[in-house]
Design brief:
Among the domains are: 40 residues, no CATH class; 42 residues. It has four helices and three strands. A three-stranded antiparallel sheet has the order 1-2-3, with no helix packed on it. It is α+β, with helices and mostly antiparallel strands. 33% of the residues lie in helices and 13% in strands. It binds zinc ion (ZN). The site of zinc ion has 8 residues, from loops.
Length: 120
């Protein structure tokens, strides 16, 4: 028989706490989490890690990653969003007040000085 381990904290002390959907439910003595002795649902952790690598380093789209792994693109989006929430906000140096980037500056620079249609 496999040993009961809390799915939240990994604690080994638990007591029986009723039956849910035909499975024995247990309550962890250390964190109070209720759990059953069933295997975890969801995709493997390594699939999520691979998703992050493909998105971050491979510069792939959600849909392309979803096609490769055989999952929904919404799942890929949710995994990346969940991991992104764990990352702290970037710190902006104090000496920079406001930085405006105008992506059209090179077009404006090349624009001819005359106004209207060019004469032929
Ligand atoms: Zn626990």
């Amino acid at each position: 028989m496999c040993e009961l381990v809390c799915k939240r904290c990994g604690g080994k002390d638990s007591v029986k706490s009723g039956i849910v959907r035909g499975h024995q439910r247990y309550r962890c003595k250390s964190c109070g989490c209720h759990f059953t002795a069933t295997k975890r649902c969801g995709k493997p952790h390594m699939m999520r890690v691979l998703t992050l690598l493909l998105y971050g380093m491979g510069n792939m789209s959600y849909r392309m990653i979803a096609r490769l792994l055989g999952v929904s693109h919404v799942s890929v989006y949710a995994w990346i969003k969940a991991e992104a929430k764990k990352i702290p906000e970037p710190k902006i140096p104090a000496d920079i007040d406001v930085l405006n980037l105008d992506e059209m500056w090179h077009f404006l620079k090349k624009e001819p000085k005359t106004v209207g249609t060019p004469s032929v």
